[in-house]
Amino acid sequence: MADLQDDIPTTTEVGEDDSLPDDPFVRQRPDGELLERAHALLDIHPVADGYSGLPWALRHLPWYDLELGEAAIDTDVPRLREGHVGALFWSLHLPEEPGPDRAVTAALEQLDLVRTVVESHPGGLRLVRTAGQIIDARNCGRVAVVLGPAPGAALDDSLALLRILHSLGLRVLTLAGTAWAGETGLTRFGEEVVREMNRLGVLADVSGASPDTVERTIALSKTPVLCSRSAARALRAHPANLGDGLLAALGEAKGLCMVPLTAEQTGPTVPDVADHLDHVRKVAGPECVGLSGTYDSGAVHPRDLADASRYPHLIAELLRRGWSETELSLLTWRNVQRVLRSADFTARAAQQRREASNARISELDAS
Hints:
Structural class: alpha/beta
Shape: globular
Number of strands: 12
Strand order of the largest sheet: 1-2-4-3
Low-confidence stretches: 1-12, 15-27
CATH topology: TIM Barrel
Distance between the termini: 48 Å
Strand content: 5-15%
Radius of gyration: 20 Å
Number of domains: 1
């Protein structure tokens, strides 16, 4: 089922050694009542997780069964159900991005692997394209798998390849790391890529992009812009985190900042992650904040958030801080539904007004 390659090391959880300070606040655990409330809320409003590195992790296992459970990775169907995960965005990124001559092939191989994995686990997983299909999958007791984000380099500067990837199910494309979305913002070809993504209903992911690219994409896109792995730079100066100005602009445009559960970007504890969620909610608004587990991506995760089963611990902390049920339902589920529905609605309207673009980078960005 999986390629015969050497096992990859499992991701770790901060605080597994005894060298960390024995701080009662750092080591606090939610009480039973808060956890019970968190489970009850997630039964109604499950988690739509914005980023999973599972496809790449599975390539390194000689054998796996996600429905039975798999200890070598962070994500399997039992833990997704224990964590009340209803939808999962499966990344097509690679740990080390291939050169331009391999980017297209690598993305297609990842996409093929995702389809194979989902088809091999019909009792637990279902590949979906739309917000409505996510709900249908949940009603059937399946975890919905959404394709993306994929690296923008997979386009190979061809909008025809964007359309092919969309026809195969791609819903999110990362703009960072391309020649047309650099430090100075989108080039003319980059702007055409965003317009064509709007026409197709593919969401633009600007995590890791330059501030100029983020600003221009937010201003240009007719659909909400997504940050698949971005927290608050005011709290942690990571290059993929967003400053308050960009968070405010994202909020005004009804985009979505999906806060990653990684020690590097958000800190080593559950309260640290909650601080970022509080900050993004305050600056961008409760309708513009989401969750990004980043499990199986090689990241180190905060204590008590080691795998996909641990979401109730985070929700319990937010309940302790006074988040309302409405705010938590937006965070876990409804914001992602809104963004996907908006992209589909905009695409249907755009396809009536605009023909498919065949613009080429050599024509638009020639000096």
